[in-house]
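Whiteboard transcription, Tuesday session. T.W. wrote the structure tokens on the left side:
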């Protein structure tokens, strides 16, 4: 069973992501912020990090920098769920500005609105 870390500061979106993925057999860990996510990542082995980007916050950048600098986190795929004022293009710009390679940093993205099946398909593809 694949293990997914969902990071979302909005409990409603977080619950929807969790329920959608759990229903399809994934083990889901939930974090409401980057410090909580990093704690989980240090304590648990996960196959994918799924970060909900509602608006691009400093915490999203902090996660990217930490992931790049930590050998144990570097190889965990990262996907973003864009549900609000942020955009995938903005996220890619930030990745580039931070000196990170977009294709090595961001492994998948899905932009709302999307169906549960589209989310599960992306996750399944990324952990295969």
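and on the right, the sequence the group agreed on:
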């Amino acid at each position: 069973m694949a293990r997914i870390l969902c990071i979302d500061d909005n409990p409603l979106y977080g619950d929807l992501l969790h329920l959608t993925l759990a229903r399809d057999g994934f083990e889901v860990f939930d974090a409401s912020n980057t410090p909580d996510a990093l704690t989980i990542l240090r304590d648990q082995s996960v196959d994918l990090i799924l970060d909900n980007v509602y608006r691009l916050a400093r915490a999203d950048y902090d996660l990217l920098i930490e992931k790049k600098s930590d050998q144990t986190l570097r190889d965990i795929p990262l996907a973003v769920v864009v549900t609000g004022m942020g955009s995938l293009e903005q996220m890619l710009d930030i990745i580039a500005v931070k000196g990170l390679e977009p294709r090595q940093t961001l492994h998948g993205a899905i932009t709302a609105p999307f169906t549960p099946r589209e989310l599960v398909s992306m996750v399944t593809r990324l952990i295969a």
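Someone added at the bottom: The chain is about 50% helix and 20% strand.
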